[in-house]
Design goal:
Layout (H helix, E strand, L loop, with lengths): L3 H10 L4 H14 L5 H12 L4 H11 L2 H23 L5 H14 L15 H8 L9 E5 L5 H9 L4 E6 L2 H22 L7 E6 L12 E4 L6 H11 L7 E5 L9 E11 L2 E10 L1
Parallel strand pairs: 1-2, 1-4, 2-3, 4-5
Antiparallel strand pairs: 5-7, 6-7
Length: about 280
């Protein structure tokens, strides 16, 4: 972590220029690993939008403790990413996703197929889980059974993953996620990117068992309603993940003989109620 007194000196040297000060702040915090590249982009966007919080964060830098000021910066960035997330899902609230899922399962006589029951992550709870993993900018994220894509966009908007991917077998949910992704590419992607890194998001209409996700660094399966056979099949495919890769499951951990260690276990609230969240790491 960088010395914030050095940042204070840089900001002081910028004179009266709010623009220069915010650019110094954004660059310094990102360079020293205190914020993500996305956080850097959002601070710069605040400058371009002439946001009134810009002068406030400059003022607080000189008056607040390091801890309090960094907490303020992170809170500011979190508020902005949540706004972007909510803007993507204006047309697809949770109830809409549930309706799409139920209609398709009824039409295909799949209502008794428990593994297809719809459930979405809680934004803040899943963000809390992902923050327990030391994510690197070149990593990739894959959601197995991605629904309308909410977990994918929690990952996409908050971390510098090279690519975030969702795999969904129900065509209606996949179509909804694809539309959200189109809106992301048109309206949001340029806001959170400050470099040539593409910050990709992609969705595939497929069974999670049919696609190769062995190169992923962080894999997520909302497995609360998965049966034992599907858990075993996921574990079997997950053996191909690299050493130290992560696999997150809900309610049900991987089988004991899978070559993974449970490095974190925590009860969190999701859209359907509480679930135990397991973070596994490949041996």
């Amino acid at each position: 972590m960088g010395d914030l007194n050095k940042l204070r000196a840089l900001v002081e040297s910028a004179g009266e220029s709010v623009q220069a000060k915010i650019l110094y702040i954004a660059g310094f915090l990102h360079r020293h690993g205190m914020i993500t590249g996305i956080g850097k982009a959002l601070l710069k966007e605040m400058l371009f939008q002439k946001d009134v919080r810009g002068p406030k964060l400059i003022e607080r830098l000189s008056t607040a403790t390091d801890e309090a000021w960094l907490k303020y910066i992170h809170r500011l960035i979190d508020v902005e990413t949540l706004k972007l997330f909510d803007s993507l899902y204006m047309d697809y609230p949770l109830e809409h996703g549930k309706a799409i899922s139920r209609q398709e399962r009824e039409e295909q006589d799949l209502l008794t197929e428990k593994s297809l029951i719809y459930g979405e992550v809680d934004y803040l709870a899943f963000l809390h889980t992902l923050r327990k993993i030391p994510i690197e900018p070149h990593w990739t994220f894959v959601d197995l059974g991605s629904g309308t894509g909410r977990a994918v966009f929690v990952a996409r908007l908050n971390f510098d993953f090279a690519k975030c991917t969702g795999i969904e077998i129900l065509s209606g949910l996949h179509a909804a996620a694809a539309e959200v992704c189109a809106n992301y590419n048109e309206f949001v992607r340029s806001v959170i990117s400050t470099s040539t890194k593409p910050l990709e998001a992609a969705f595939f209409h497929s069974s999670l068992l049919d696609l190769d996700w062995s190169r992923a660094d962080v894999v997520f399966a909302n497995s609360t309603c998965f049966d034992s056979e599907l858990i075993w099949e996921i574990a079997d495919k997950a053996v191909a993940l690299r050493s130290k890769a992560y696999l997150i499951t809900f309610t049900k951990p991987l089988p004991d003989d899978a070559p993974f260690d449970i490095i974190d276990k925590e009860r969190r609230n999701m859209s359907w109620g509480p679930a135990t969240v397991y973070i596994h790491q490949r041996r």
